[in-house]
């Protein structure tokens, strides 16, 4: 009934880095893992910058970004997969638009990491998946949004994400892998339609449609790791 389109985005927030030979404790979020209906397992898989991997029918390029630990000045790199443009396999699209980045914040905290950090013992971390759905509707009788070309329209988007964090000494890095599924695209409805429950196919909202995205995150996270330079 409705067309379905899958798009991928990744957002980076903040990061903390520890001394490279600090304890091997992880940032396993026991409370979130316990409450989440979905979890994935992290196991480090090494690839080099420029390598290509294919996950869920989409091509990713392995990239490596530098950062510096705030207090000590130690140099680090973070290696990760980033999606390629569908129509241009030589162009990196990035997780949240045309750019890809790492944001680090200066703060203290316990030495831990959801992903591998050089100098620490490798562990297989259990990580919690976040799953949300956003349903939107617009009733634009006065034509304030002509781009929609309809009085009443609605859509539904499902987002499945994997929040990650690392702390090293006085530096904190937090980022998230995010997959987005357009369950119901913008769909025109009659003007002054205040009840949209009879305008959708509820089969488009079935929960099982998120499992392929969870499987993809389970694979993609393994290619993220941090090393001291």
Question: Which properties best describe this structure?
Answer:
229 residues; 2 helices; 7% helix; six-stranded mixed beta sheet; disordered N terminus; mainly beta
Mean pLDDT: 74
Report low-confidence residues grouped into runs of 5 or more.
1-26, 94-99
Largest pleated sheet: 6 strands, mixed
Report the total helices. 2
Classify the beta-strand content into a percent band.
over 45%
| Global outline | elongated
Distance between the termini: 52 Å
The total strand number stands at 13
Number of domains: 1
In sequence order, what are the helices and strands, one letter per element?
EHEEEEEEEEEEEHE
How helical, in percent, are the residues? Answer: under 10%
**Class derived from helix and strand content:** mainly beta
Question: Radius of gyration in whole Å, from Cα?
Answer: 20 Å
How would you summarize the topology of this molecule?
Layout: E1 5-17, H1 30-35, E2 39-42, E3 52-55, E4 58-68, E5 75-85, E6 88-92, E7 104-106, E8 112-113, E9 116-117, E10 125-128, E11 130-139, E12 152-189, H2 211-220, E13 225-228
Parallel strand pairs: 9-13
Antiparallel strand pairs: 1-12, 2-10, 3-4, 4-5, 5-6, 5-13, 7-12, 8-12, 11-12
Explain what the structure shows.
With 229 residues, this protein is mainly beta. It has one domain. The chain is 7% helix and 48% strand. The chain has two helices and 13 strands; from the N terminus they run βαβββββββββββαβ. It has helices spanning 30-35, 211-220; strands at 5-17, 39-42, 52-55, 58-68, 75-85, 88-92, 104-106, 112-113, 116-117, 125-128, 130-139, 152-189, 225-228. The strands form three sheets. Strands 3, 4, 5, 6, 9 and 13 form a six-stranded mixed beta sheet that branches. Strand 3 and strand 4 (58-68) form a beta hairpin. The longest helix is centred in the C-terminal third of the chain and has 10 residues, at 211-220. The radius of gyration is 20 Å and the shape is elongated. Residues 1-26 and 94-99 have low confidence and may be disordered.
């Amino acid at each position: 009934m409705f067309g379905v389109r899958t798009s991928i985005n990744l957002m980076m927030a903040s990061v903390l880095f520890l001394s490279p030979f600090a304890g091997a404790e992880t940032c396993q979020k026991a409370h979130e893992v316990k409450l989440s209906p979905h979890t994935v397992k992290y196991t480090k898989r090494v690839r080099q910058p420029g390598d290509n991997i294919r996950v869920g029918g989409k091509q990713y390029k392995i990239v490596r970004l530098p950062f510096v630990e705030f207090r000590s000045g130690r140099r680090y790199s973070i290696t990760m997969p980033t999606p390629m443009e569908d129509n241009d396999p030589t162009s990196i699209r990035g997780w949240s638009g045309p750019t890809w980045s790492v944001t680090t914040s200066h703060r203290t905290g316990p030495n831990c990491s959801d992903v591998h950090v050089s100098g620490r013992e490798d562990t297989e971390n259990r990580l919690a998946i976040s799953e949300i759905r956003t349903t939107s509707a617009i009733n634009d009788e006065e034509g304030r949004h002509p781009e929609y070309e309809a009085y009443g329209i609605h859509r539904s988007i499902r987002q499945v994400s994997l929040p990650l964090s690392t702390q090293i000494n006085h530096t904190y890095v937090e980022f998230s892998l995010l997959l987005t599924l357009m369950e119901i695209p913008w769909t025109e409805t009659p003007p002054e339609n205040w009840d949209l429950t009879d305008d959708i196919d509820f089969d488009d909202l079935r929960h099982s449609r998120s499992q392929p995205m969870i499987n993809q995150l389970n694979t993609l996270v393994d290619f993220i790791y941090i090393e001291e330079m």
